[in-house]
Amino acid sequence: MDGQSEKTMRTLPDTLSSLKEFNKYLIPSWVESVSHIIKELTPTKPQKVMEDKAQDIFECDDKEPDTKIAKIQDEMVSLSAQLKEITLQKRESLNNYLDLKGSIRVFCRIRPFNHEQSYSSRTMFTLDESNIFLRVSETKRKQYKFDKVFDPSSTQGDVFSEVEPLIKSAIDGYNVCIFAYGQTGSGKTYTMEGKPTNLGVIPRGIQVLFDRASESNNRFLFTFSMLEIYMGNLRDLLVPGSKTNGFKNVPSLAIKTDPDGGIEIENLVAVTVNNFQEVKRLYGVGTRLRSTASTMANSTSSRSHCLIRISMTSFDAPERKKARNKLWMIDLGGSERLVKTKATGKRLKEGKAINLSLSALGDVIDALQTKKTHVPYRNSKLTQVLRDSLGCESKTLMLVHIRPNENDLCETVCTLGFATRVRSIRLESEESPDVKARKEQFLMELGQKVNDLEQECDNIKRKVKKLEDTMEQLKGPQLAVSTNFVISPPSTEELKINMSKNVRSLKNHREVSSGLPRFMRPTAASQHRIGLNNNVPSINRLKPPVPPKRRPSSVYAESIRLPVNADTWQSECSSECSISMTSDINWTPSIQDGTEYSQDASEYEIKQVIFSEYEKPSQGPVISFKEWQLAESENMQNKTEERGIIDIDNWIHQQILESTVTCQSKMGLNVPKVTGDETSNIRSPIKIEGAKGCNKALDEENDLALHPPPLNAKDIKQANAVNHFSGAELRSPPSREHCSNNETNKHTNESFAYHGRSRRSLQEKLDDCMLRQPDKEADLSARAEIRSQEEEHHIGKLKKFFQALQIAWVGVGLGLGTASLGLEDDFFHSLML
Ligand SMILES: Nc1ncnc2c1ncn2[C@@H]1O[C@H](COP(=O)(O)OP(=O)(O)OP(=O)(O)O)[C@@H](O)[C@H]1O
Question: Which segments carry the region annotation Disordered (predicted)?
Fold first, then answer.
């Protein structure tokens, strides 16, 4: 270290101390950086002393809590920016990781052995992490490759740890489908639903969804739906009463494609859920209504495909973005060889329907994997429903289940064949070992990166939490609310408040406008334009009203009292649980509580009612969803009001303009016309000049003043050219045929001068103009009268003067004659001259 550096180092603590004065302008991250720099430098003083100095800057002398709070807030803002950045990186890395692994992945789970299972059954398989070697004969083993193989001892936790990235991916905005596939009794329902003590993928996934949503910077709105596809029909499992009459009168739900190409299931109930408990209750209801029956293979065999849909709407407040996606968790019906099950009648039909749709699903996934131009979605209801969630940007996971039983060898071979097909081993086998090795390496690196970033996120969250606590201590609990980093999804209450607020604001607007004179009230058309009738869903305004498809009235206005499966997710309910449509979960078909209950309108329509107001992007950073929602609704309210006012304003402005021009025209006409040969074809040059003069006067904020008529031929010609613009034309740009460029510009400027003028100023001018017009006329005539009177007066005076003079002369002559009778005649003659 040279002398200069040493000197700098020696004085560093003092320099830092001198910075104390700027204490209130410094943020903790700066102090941290300085401490870090000191650590990095070789200390000439004990390092601890210098670090303490740096920390002192932040801590000592800072007695004002406001200053501290401001610093904490700054720090929190910077941390939240960091968190956002890292979250984005993490999301990107996770998606790269999943993409590299494949957008369609296949896992295999082998059900545990029963105690009665033979040794032969137990030695049917040999496994490793991603391969199953199946003994198909005494001497032959067949290899099946998977993304992951779970041996019979694997736990629900093991399975879920591999599924979890996909759930996270759903939170990141991807459509995700998780299927459980396998023969009857192979453990599909066990994997998906689990047992009360051993929860499966669905409950764990939902828990993770809520957890991740609460940690996210975005706000989420979740809706839950549950349906089954039974013998090719779609049935809503959240509509009670349908099973009691054997689904006889319940029509199959229709599948519709919305304008964006998304799939909508008409009349499907979608309940807004805010927490795990709500989902659990609904799942319990749905499970009770699911079609199950006792078969030879399984006493509670699922006779249908059970689909759980979580629709997610995420609101990115700072980015002003809203995104929707779906997470499907599907417990497929058991594939079965009908010959073996010896099913007859209804069971046979059910089995056939299940097998057909499973085969169609296999075809679709195979077509997607092999990137075929035609994907046969239309071949089954299952693939039609999942059309927008399979392929493209979606992620699919197939959890294949097998039963390790020698008797089930044929089924196992079929199942593994299906898995091979959907996994597209063919594509993978084309990769060279070198490529495979590099891919593995890259995957490892990406996995590590995701973990590191996750760690970093956790650290930042901890810091934020600490700062929040400090803040709470400093300022009390109310501040913690304003800087709340703990995010919760919007409650139905919040939605209610917002909806009612919007409705109220529109109502107020109507009340205000009804107080206006009739001619100032917006017409029905303008009400529609400015959004006063926005309470009508936009979709209804676009489409002609369609008579709603109604379910039997027994479907609603009904209180359900259902025995809830005690096994369902550690149900804290007793064996019986009452779910009233108006109690626990508000099932009322109302838009205000966010429940999407599609009795009178399609699911899409109701969503439009709920979300259409939030869809409009607007500017400005708003941190929390609550604030954003309020800002949005206020924004909307303001917009509506503003638009209303602008409309009325425009109307008034227009009226004033027209009145002003009419007034000026009148003024022009009142001025005497110019006569003469050259002006014979001019209708009223003075009128134009008057109008121009009036415009000019308006522009210059002067009084209206009449300008003298054009004095020479040039002026008159010019006036003639300008005269082509009538009052009406002054309000719209003149056509080229009517005027030269210069005149057009001039005219346009004048016209703009009018339109740019404020309403008040125009109103004043109009009033002025209106008031002055009669005064001027009176003034002119009065002046003429006075002038003539004055002239008469002068003439009279002169006359009198001459008369007086004459009289004087006569008087003088008479006097002089009388006084000097002796004077000569010549003398008198000279005087007379
Ligand atoms: N991994 C496992 N660990 C413990 N028990 C299991 C496991 N897998 C399945 N079982 C048990 O096997 C039985 C049948 O499983 P399950 O009902 O999940 O089969 P399934 O494939 O859903 O059948 P189906 O298609 O007929 O509905 C259940 O009693 C379940 O508890």
Answer: 534-554, 728-757
Closest ligand 1 atom to 334 CA: 25
Are 294 and 301 contacting, i.e. CB atoms less than 8 angstroms apart?
yes
Domain identity same for 24 and 166: no
Does residue 571 lie within any of the structural domains? no
How many angstroms separate the alpha carbon of residue 189 from the centre of ligand 1? 6
Residues 263, 411: one domain? yes
CB neighbours of 725 closer than 8 A, spacing ≥ 6? 688, 734, 738, 739, 747
One domain, residues 670 and 759:
yes
Q: How far is the CA of 353 from the centre of ligand 1 (A)?
A: 21
Q: 233 in a domain, yes or no?
A: yes
Distance CA 648, CA 787 (A): 49
Nearest residue by C-alpha to atom 9 in ligand 1:
187
Which protein residue has the closest C-alpha to ligand 1 atom 26?
A: 301
For residue range 653-671, what is the model confidence (pLDDT) as tens digits? 443 444 444 444 444 333 3
Judging by DSSP bridges, how do beta strands 301-302 and 198-199 pair with one another?
unpaired
Beta-carbon-side half-sphere exposure of residue 678 (alpha carbons within 13 Å): 12
Is 187 marked within a binding site? yes
- Give the binding-site residues of ligand 1, using a 6 Å CB cut-off: 111-112, 182, 184-190, 298, 301-302, 334, 401
Task: Read off the tokens for 770.
Answer: 């209106």
| Ligand 1 mean position, distance from CA 292 (Å) | 13
Give me 300's structure tokens. Answer: 């509670």
Q: Which residue has the tokens 């991740």?
A: 212
pLDDT (tens digit per residue) in 603-660: 333 333 333 333 333 333 333 434 444 444 444 444 333 333 333 234 334 434 444 4
How far apart are alpha carbons 829 and 97 in whole angstroms?
140
Q: How much of the chain, in percent, has pLDDT values that exceed 70? A: 45
Distance CA 460, CA 84 (A): 10
Q: Is 186 annotated as a binding residue?
A: yes
How far is the centre of ligand 1, averaged over its atoms, from the C-alpha of 234 (Å)? 24
- Measured in Å, residue 190 CA sits from the centre of ligand 1 at 5
Closest to 302 in 3D by CA, of 354, 346, 356: 354
Residue 668, marked binder: no
Q: Is residue 71 part of a domain?
A: no
Positive or negative torsion for Cα 372, 375, 379, 383: positive
Would you say 582 and 245 are in contact if contact means Cβ atoms under 8 Å apart? no
Mean pLDDT of 169-198: 91
Which of 642, 674, 693 is the endpoint of a domain? 642
The domain in which residue 698 lies consists of 644-773
Q: Which of 117-126, 556-565, 761-770 has the highest mean pLDDT?
A: 117-126
Burial of 768 (0-12, 13-18, 19+ CB in 10 A): middle
Asked whether 270 and 596 are in contact (CB, 8 A), the reply is yes
Q: Please state the atom number of ligand 1 nearest to the C-alpha of residue 180.
A: 21
- pLDDT class of 675 with cuts at 50, 70, 90: very low
What share of the chain has pLDDT > 90, as a percent? 14
Residue nearest to atom 11 of ligand 1 (CA): 187
Domain stop point among 642, 674, 692:
642
- Contact (CB, 8 A) for 556 and 181: no
Same-domain pairing of 286 and 327: yes
Residues 629, 662 share a domain: no
Asked if residue 500 is part of any domain, the answer here is: yes
Tokens read off for 279: 């989902």
**184 annotated ligand-binding residue:** yes
The verdict on 755 and 794 lying in the same domain is no
- Per the structure, the count of domains in the chain is 5
Residue 333 CA: which ligand 1 atom is closest?
Answer: 25
Same domain, yes or no: 201 and 308: yes
Residues 535 and 652 in one domain: no
pLDDT of residue 222: 94
